[in-house]
Amino acid sequence: MAALLRRRWCMLAGMWKSARSFGAVLVLLAPLAAPAAGTQAPLPRESPSLFWAGADIGYGSVARSYSVTGDSREGKVAFALRGGIQLDPRLLLGVEFGGWTLQSAGGGNPATGEAIGTRFLIVQVYPLAHSAFFVRGGGGRVVYSNDRQGESGASGSGGVLGIGYDFDVKRRDGEHTAFYITSSLDYSAGSFSDATSPPGVVQDQRYRALSARIGLTFR
Fold this sequence. Notes:
Blueprint: H1 2-33, E1 51-66, E2 72-88, E3 91-103, E4 114-125, E5 133-146, E6 154-172, E7 177-196, E8 202-218
Antiparallel strand pairs: 1-2, 1-8, 2-3, 3-4, 4-5, 5-6, 6-7, 7-8
């Protein structure tokens, strides 16, 4: 009986010693596991929305070179509509319909209006952890439209590369969707062939445009 009690006592003492050792280890590791003063632990990633969309407007400096006539540079209104699917919160795929209004069609005169339009496939990547900074790039079709008397449009190809930032203005966490004010700066270049402009002159054109935009993005 005495031997049994001694064995149980030794067992309990060993368990108590192990518990004390384990507690000491926890005390030593606690400062490493806890966030440092003035910092916050990373928040869990939200479930992404499947689709995203955006629209923006801004100002673009458009330079054009021609195969026959002299070069030109103009400051014009820039616009874009874009949308697609969200493979990951930091990887967006989609299409962009944008461009620059070179001459507004108005005043009841149908023989006015000139624009360069883009139809691009784009990729938008957020490369920095915990940042809404993004890089956007893509390419596709360029359409030059010209409604002036004796002139005509053409089509070709082009591309775009830009950077931007999403400023969070509204979030609906229950549905995992969000709205952002998006500012961006992008460079686009392309070309099109056999455009008639000025009247009677058929020539190829190349364009280069640097555009600053602001708009609204949903993702």
